[in-house]
Amino acid sequence: MGEGNLYVSVDYGRATGPAVDDGTRPWTREDPPFWANASIWLEPGIDKAKVGQPSFIHVRVSNKSRQEMKNVQVQTFIFTPTVGVPVTFNDCIKNNGAKLGIPSGSGTNAADDGNVVKIGPWTPGPGDLKGDGHMCLIANVFQTEEGASPLPPDPGSHEIVSQDEDPFKPNGDSHQCQRNIQLLPATQQAIQQPVKVVYTTRPSSPTVHPRAYQIKMDLVDIDGFTADELFILSRQPEIEFNGSESKDGELRLKTSWGTERIARGPRPLSFDLKAEGIPGFGQTFERDAKMPQDIPSELEVQIDPEAPVGSLHTFDITLHDEKELVGSGLRVMVLVTE
């Protein structure tokens, strides 16, 4: 069916030759297929979106008439693919564009082109991600009665409503179009700057025979959580805790897109110790009369830039002499947030 002046061109800008779509349906070519319509895309991902990140939907509407078509509106519908019973209006994520005038022709690829309708933003939540994230994005173009006056609305165009039993016909109705998209899991910006931990090192007072010392760093690498991790983390307002302190429970970090499970993260990339008179982790030094009792110390920890939101990194910093641990140590917990 190619009824009406409004349609969404499947092969606009086709690289293998000139576009031939004039709104006639069904579309039978495979370069591209109807489900990869070039006139509908996401910004910024083209055919990809990410949980927690806003995307705008662009629909390029072609107008075969020689005059502007007024009060044209675009509806968009996003849903996971199904086999069998068709998807209905109520099964979809819905976004509507404003009523606009669509000039004659097909316009260009520019986002501010008069033939391009911008809709959104759409910010997918974690509940929208199902399976491998494959989703269908369908748009429907229609002209309202009041916009067409004194002429009738564009023939064949109509608003999709909840009462429609089988509303989506992207290869049977030139006013509809489809592009398959991929919804990706939430990610955070790469962790570029190291985490800094400031503390004071206090070796024992020097004697006639100065002792040799070492600063050691040990990662906590166990299944589940230690008692102090549970105690500290479960009391943070941005963390949900299901369980009790006497046994392992589930910790979940609140984010802008929902919650993420807290779990032991990958090993940090590097550690760097800055303290006057102390050469570094695992290296021997001696305290003499010239070394102050309190040594300002700063530890820099570089977390893996790809560490996921909710990853926990715990390690202990301790001072040792030739025989044993000196005094108490310091436990550091680093939690990756968004």
Care to count the β-strands? 22
Strand-pairing-aware structural class: mainly beta
Largest sheet: 6 strands, mixed
What is the overall shape? elongated
Radius of gyration: 31 Å
The DSSP helix count reads 2
What is the rounded distance between the termini?
Answer: 48 Å
On the 0-100 scale, what is the average pLDDT? 84
Low-confidence stretches are none
Strand content: 35-45%
Report the order of strands and helices.
EEEEEEEEEEHEEEHEEEEEEEEE
Helix content: under 10%
Task: Describe the structure concisely.
The chain has 338 residues and is mainly beta. Helices cover 3% and strands 38% of the residues.
Describe this structure in words.
This protein has 338 residues and is mainly β. It has helices at residues 145-148, 227-233; strands at residues 6-7, 40-43, 48-50, 55-60, 62-63, 69-79, 93-96, 100-102, 116-122, 134-143, 176-184, 195-201, 212-219, 239-244, 247-255, 258-261, 263-264, 270-275, 285-286, 295-302, 311-320, 330-335. Strand 14 (239-244) and strand 15 form a beta hairpin. The longest helix has 7 residues, at 227-233. It is elongated.
Secondary-structure map:
Elements: E1 6-7, E2 40-43, E3 48-50, E4 55-60, E5 62-63, E6 69-79, E7 93-96, E8 100-102, E9 116-122, E10 134-143, H1 145-148, E11 176-184, E12 195-201, E13 212-219, H2 227-233, E14 239-244, E15 247-255, E16 258-261, E17 263-264, E18 270-275, E19 285-286, E20 295-302, E21 311-320, E22 330-335
Parallel strand pairs: 3-11, 17-21
Antiparallel strand pairs: 1-5, 2-4, 4-9, 6-7, 6-8, 6-10, 10-11, 12-20, 13-19, 13-21, 14-15, 15-16, 18-20, 21-22
